[in-house]
Amino acid sequence: MEFLGFLPILILVALAAVQLGIAAYAAQQAGTAARAAARTASLDEPRTSPQAAGKAAMSGWLADGASIGSGGCGGGEAQATATVEIPSVIPGFDFGSAEKSATMPCDEGDGGVAPAALGGER
Length: 122
Known about the structure:
It comes from Streptomyces asiaticus subsp. ignotus. InterPro entries: TadE-like_dom (IPR012495). Residues 2-39 form the TadE-like domain. Residues 36-56, 100-122 are annotated as: Disordered. The protein is rod-shaped, with a radius of gyration of 21 Å. It starts with a helix and ends in a 17-residue tail after the last strand. It is 42% helix and 19% strand. The model is unreliable at 111-122 (pLDDT under 50). Helix 1 (2-41) packs antiparallel against helix 2. It is of the alpha+beta class.
């Protein structure tokens, strides 16, 4: 009988732990999307848009509610920001969104690999 009284508290603690894990995963996915978008924006001639690259780098169930903004190569660096909505497992609660930014150096037009790195002569 005492267990039945304590069960709602155990369920609430379990839901809070799951929600914390989902929030951490959303933040990690936002960072991954921002890095992929910045990397794509830093290329000389990107084959895909930075927004599409950022969403492709994320899990599909989080990519639907994500927004990715990126700039070009201003000042030798490309920057991108990803905002991911944090899904809620607790009905009626909104946990906001996770936002991460990334900056990558712009491609110099030489393919990004030095000849010495390929085993060539200097």
